[in-house]
Amino acid sequence: MAGAASALFLLDIKGRVLIWRDYRGDVSAVEAERFFTKLIEKEGDPQSQDPVVYDNGVTYMFVQHSNVYVMTATRQNCNAASLLFFLHRVVDVFKHYFEELEEESLRDNFVVVVKCQCSFGFSNLSIAFFCLGFSFVIKKISNSAELLFPWQYELLDEIMDFGYPQYTEAKILSEFIKTDAYRMEVTQRPPMAVTNAVSWRSEGINYKKNEVFLDVVESVNILVNSNGQIIRSDVVGALKMRTYLSGMPECKLGLNDRVLLEAQGRATKGKAIDLEDIKFHQCVRLARFENDRTISFIPPDGSFDLMTYRLSTQVKPLIWVEAQVERHSKSRIEIMVKARSQFKERSTATNVEIELPVPADATNPNVRTSMGSASYAPEKDALIWKIRSFPGGKEYMLRAEFRLPSITDEEATPERKAPIRVKFEIPYFTVSGIQVRYLKIIEKSGYQALPWVRYITMAGEYELRLI
Fold it and tell me: Where are the chain's structural domains?
């Protein structure tokens, strides 16, 4: 990072400072007001959503979560992407402690704001006391106040040091910054993970049964126009892990990656895949992956996303839906829907939900289905067709009839044309064909670990437009 942040602010939705931490002394709380004024001035501007604002020599970077702005300010030339990523990690840390980061949760944990004169050179120091790691201890001695700063345990000073991001793993921070009924408890020294090169994992972890669960989850995004043409399609995948391993294990993961297999001189036979936009968890050794495409890592304890990826290749819709709408005079409307599964018979989609838009003034539905059940959801102006199990290569039908009011408003706004939305899950199936070739766990104690791998495909933004 070329430069460092000067201060970290948490603001409410009106731009008022809830809490802030000054790291370098060159940005004051007044800058937060200037930031919010600048933000208001940009309302209506097409670029108003830019997370970076510059004004009078100060660069502001921010993210909004619920009704709270998390913002950092700097006078130096910083890596904006790095600081924005840091702000998202700060949100995760606060959510870990508060369950949900919002103004009310911050105020619920606010104790008092005081001003005091310090006998060792500080004056007019405003100190915000928070129970979750932001507490400062005040002790009056001889008409003066001595401030005892537990720097090594304060949350804001652990996640950032002199403007440089430090530790943002909530699980590690919670080991030495603990909360109980609005009181902070601290251990005598930070855990080894803070001083260790592996900051995302503590030492001394022990399980009676060592297991690793790996879920390969792919979300299919599809947009089909009214002519049946696929306008947009892609697959977003994630390797989600849950590790319950003792000690400090070394894990190695192999995929059917085309680049790796070709480099090893192996015949791919059409089973290899080309991964795009790969993003790894910080535990993965990137240099090792760049050299020989080996995914090697020491995993965090518990749940985490090891890797995410994207495939932009044309995807055939797994569940195809056709709808015909017939209006009989102005008194009723009839809808006929065909749903067809376009994947192999050995796979089965579960929890299929097809949301069919209907006119806002439709009433008295009469619905018949060849499979599953359908219910009218007037709050969504939709008919919800649910099919618990949808095997591959099958086709099911739905017929529905709705009554319409006999009197219509001639000046009524045109009827909205909402798309058909589909939700589903297909276990033991992936669109991309990604496969885990091996998952090895090596630990110096030599214990045997049980790896479990599961595949699942689900609908992401899956929409088909009506004529």
Answer: 7-195, 211-315+431-461, 319-407+417-427
Q: Which residues are CB-neighbours of 242 under 8 A, at least 6 positions away?
A: 212, 213, 302, 303
Q: Which residue has the tokens 């090169």?
A: 197
- The model's pLDDT over 139-180, given as tens digits with 9 standing for 90+, comes to 332 233 333 333 323 577 777 878 888 777 777 676 666 654
Name the burial class of residue 74, with classes exposed (0-12), middle (13-18) and buried (19+) by CB atoms within 10 angstroms of its CB: buried
Two structure tokens written together for 209: 């049964």
* 56, amino acid identity: N
DSSP alpha helices (H): ranges in 51-162? 80-98, 103-108, 155-159
Q: Going by CATH, does the domain composed of 7-195 fall within 3.30.450.60? A: yes
d(CA 292, CA 313): 25
Structure tokens at 452: 């479990």
pLDDT, one tens digit per residue, over 371-423 is 999 999 988 889 999 999 999 999 999 999 988 876 555 555 555 578 999 99
Q: Hey, is 111 helix, strand or coil?
A: strand
For residue 115, the model assigns a pLDDT of: 29
Give tens-digit pLDDT for 11-25.
888 888 887 888 888
* Tokens 């804001």, residue located: 156
Lowest mean pLDDT among 81-85, 111-115, 153-157, 460-464: 111-115
Q: In this structure, what is the dihedral angle of CA atoms 110, 114, 119, 124, given to the nearest 10 degrees?
A: 120
Q: Which position has the token pair 């401030």?
A: 147
- Per-residue confidence at 126, pLDDT binned at 50, 70, 90? very low
Share of the chain above pLDDT 70, in %: 75
pLDDT at 253: 92
**Predicted structure pTM score:** 0.63
258 or 453, greater pLDDT: 453
Q: Going by CATH, does the domain composed of 211-315+431-461 fall within 2.60.40.1170?
A: yes
Burial of 425 (0-12, 13-18, 19+ CB in 10 A): middle
Asked if 387 contacts 372 with a C-beta cutoff of 8 angstroms, the reply is yes
Q: Do the domains 319-407+417-427 and 211-315+431-461 match in fold?
A: yes
Gyration radius of the chain's alpha carbons: 28
Cα of 423 vs its chain's centroid, Å: 19
Pick the CATH number of 319-407+417-427 from 1.10.8.50, 3.30.365.10, 2.60.40.1170, 2.60.40.10: 2.60.40.1170
Q: Give the whole-angstrom CA distance, residue 198 versus residue 192.
A: 9
Structure tokens at 75: 């006078």
